[in-house]
Amino acid sequence: MQSTVPPGLDRKETELYLKLDPKRLPRHIAIIMDGNGRWARRRHLPRVAGHRSGVAAVRSTVETAARIGIQALTLYAFSEENWKKRPKSEVDFLMGLLSRYLKQEVPTLNKNNIRLEYIGRQHELPAAVRERMAWARQATEKNSSMVLTLALNYSARSELVDAFQSLVHAAARNGGLEHLQVDEDSISQHLYTRHLPDPDLVIRTSGEMRLSNFLLWQLAYAEIYVTPTLWPDFRGVHLLEGVAEYQKRERRYGGLSQDHAPTQSHGVEPSRSHPHAAKTARN
Ligand code: FPP
């Protein structure tokens, strides 16, 4: 419990924030934004109306995350599968929405000291969108409080394929395949997310219990929180509910719970606060 509430939280957010332990916030939260289509269908609106309303949810979530001091927030905006399997009209709408979001949001990102990054196969996106993305990234590159990463045309399996290819190319440039080094650190360093710690918490909206090809390597030890709230209805207060649930969990990284932990240590114990300390353990 603590008394200082970050400025800008509304009444409900403040109530929830006061129940949190600010020393045990997740460093990195990843969100699978889902339910835009269902939100629209329930209102007899076209699917794209759900995407349009989803932007307000993005705005609220990003601001609240930055206000409470989350270091990294990653949003699954659209997958490689969404990009390849949805009607062109919907994909075009999403591209337009993203471009407008980036243009409108840069001043607010700068005001809140948020740096923008992207993961996914950007080279497959339309040139005009890529230009807008590059502009927004550059405009926010000096910000240092939170990194907001948008997963666009993203697939975890493609990311792993790209990482292994990048490892092989790096070895070839470095004198040949005998210099190929494959271990957990080298793979992590070749992922799109090399600028980020692994997520501590992954949130999925709309009640679905799937990871949908999102950050499969990086989520190895993440706590999973699924809420029935559809993405367009999601706000900062729901993010805080996810954080509250996260703080109830006991993270073991394959070790023992505190009740069963040995009182004296023999050799190296997996650290409860450092996921890489217990990389090979299963939990
Ligand atoms: C999933 O809902 C959502 C998407 C595929 C798109 C997400 C886009 C936004 C939230 C808005 C734009 C984002 C940014 C960053 C500006 P769905 O369509 O799969 O919903 P359904 O499962 O109910 O059909």
Short recap of the structure:
This protein is an alpha/beta fold and 283 residues long. It has nine helices and six strands.
Radius of gyration: 20 Å
Number of strands: 6
Bound molecules: farnesyl diphosphate
Helical content (DSSP H or I, runs of 4+):
40-55%
**CATH superfamily, please?**
Decaprenyl diphosphate synthase-like
Residues in β-strands, percent:
5-15%
Treating each run of at least 4 consecutive H or I residues as one helix, how many helices?
A: 9
Quaternary state of the chains: single chain
Poorly predicted ranges: 264-283
Distance between the termini: 29 Å
Average predicted confidence as pLDDT: 90
Biggest sheet strand line-up: 3-4-2-1-5-6
CATH class: Alpha Beta
Structure in words:
This protein has 283 residues and is of the alpha/beta class. It has one domain: Undecaprenyl pyrophosphate synthetase. It contains 9 helices and 6 strands, in the order αβααβααβαβααββα. A 6-stranded parallel beta sheet has the order 3-4-2-1-5-6, with helices on both faces. Bound molecules: farnesyl diphosphate.
Break the fold down into its secondary structure elements and pairings.
Layout: H1 11-17, E1 28-32, H2 36-42, H3 47-68, E2 72-79, H4 80-85, H5 88-111, E3 114-119, H6 127-140, E4 146-154, H7 156-173, H8 184-189, E5 201-204, E6 223-226, H9 236-248
Parallel strand pairs: 1-2, 1-5, 2-4, 3-4, 5-6
Helix pairs in contact: 1-9, 2-3, 3-5, 3-9, 5-6
Bound molecules: farnesyl diphosphate.
